[in-house]
Amino acid sequence: MTTPCIICVAITGSLPTKDNNPAVPITVAEQIESTQEAFEAGASIAHCHVRNDDQSPTSDPEKFARLLEGLNTHCPGMIVQLSTGGRSGAGKTRGGMLPLGPDMASLSVGSNNFPTRVYENPPDLVEWLASEMRAYDVKPEIEAFDLSHIFQAKAMQERGELQGTPYVQFVMGVKNAMPVDREVFDFYIHTVKRLFGTGAPWCAAGIGPNQIVVNEWAVSSGGHARTGLEDNVRIDRDTLAPSNAALVGRVVDLCEKYERPVARWQQAREMLGVPQKTA
Fold it and tell me: What pairs with residue 57 in β-bridges?
């Protein structure tokens, strides 16, 4: 396979704390440093959450603004993707950072179960988030926790709520949601190609110890891969990951194994249709 593999690093998330792994970057300064290391290791997309001083999740636009500024300075060209996820806020507060005009933002287009609650994404909120992304020229990454979410993305595209070819990410291994299942994974790929065309880009993320499993499936199947401390804080059962860069390095090794080049940021932007914004 000659298609370069885009590596996305999910640096912090909403749940892991320094009690889980001291390498989890919490402050904006820590996040910038950790992302720069991951960028230099081969990641071309940074998926970002922000935290309060007590490590609790937040959607504070001011913190996102400082993080975005720092990443644009220290990781020039890297695609910055901000999270609109539901653990960090409720309702329209989840999209309060979109006027900052990041390159990308996550967009969950349907609801599903999480370990201890329902991850609610009601249609009116999804439509509003999508409209804000269009207004501020932010490319959505469709987070598919269920097969129906891929079909919902297609319906939104047909209604003009998503412009261009969506970038769909399969999220597998969240407790009470879609498990890590190879036949389901392969059907996800088939469904994306059937609905959006054989050349439609897609990505996959596995949670916890399944991270490396899904990384290998994605790399070996011609897709793109997400890694990072948001999804998994360990290298193996007995070893904490020393950094986001170390987890990126595992994906780089898989790319070498399957003879795929690692996408540079310029290639990632071209493949996803995300031009570099001028200040």
Answer: 51
Helix (H, G, I), strand (E, B) or coil at 148: helix
H/E run at residue 118: strand 118-119
DSSP annotation of 254: H
CA 180 to chain centre: 17
**Rg from Cα positions in the chain:** 17
CATH number of the domain encompassing residue 54? 3.20.20.70
Range of the domain at 215: 7-272
Report how far residue 183's alpha carbon sits from residue 267's, in angstroms, rounded to the nearest whole number. Answer: 30
Conformation bin of residue 156: beta by default, left when phi > 0, alpha when psi is -120 to 50? alpha
Domain count, the chain: 1
| Separation of alpha carbons 95 and 102, rounded Å | 12
pLDDT confidence of residue 277: 86
d(CA 95, CA 158): 23
| pLDDT of amino acid 279 | 62
What CA–CA distance (Å, rounded) separates 118 from 181?
Answer: 22
CA–CA separation, 201 and 171 (whole Å) = 15
Question: What single-letter amino acid sits at 93?
Answer: T
Assign residue 70 a region: left if phi > 0, alpha if psi is -120 to 50, beta otherwise? Answer: alpha
Q: Answer yes or no: are the C-beta atoms of 9 and 244 closer than 8 Å.
A: yes
State how far Cα 264 lies from the chain centre. Answer: 17
Q: What rounded mean pLDDT belongs to the chain? A: 96
Could you say which residues of the chain have pLDDT below 70? 1, 279
Residue 176 lies in a domain: yes
Q: Is the full-model pTM beyond 0.90?
A: yes
With respect to residue 1, please indicate whether it lies within any of the assigned structural domains.
no
Could you tell me whether strands 79-82 and 104-108 are parallel, antiparallel, or unpaired per DSSP bridges? parallel
Q: Is residue 2 in a domain? A: no
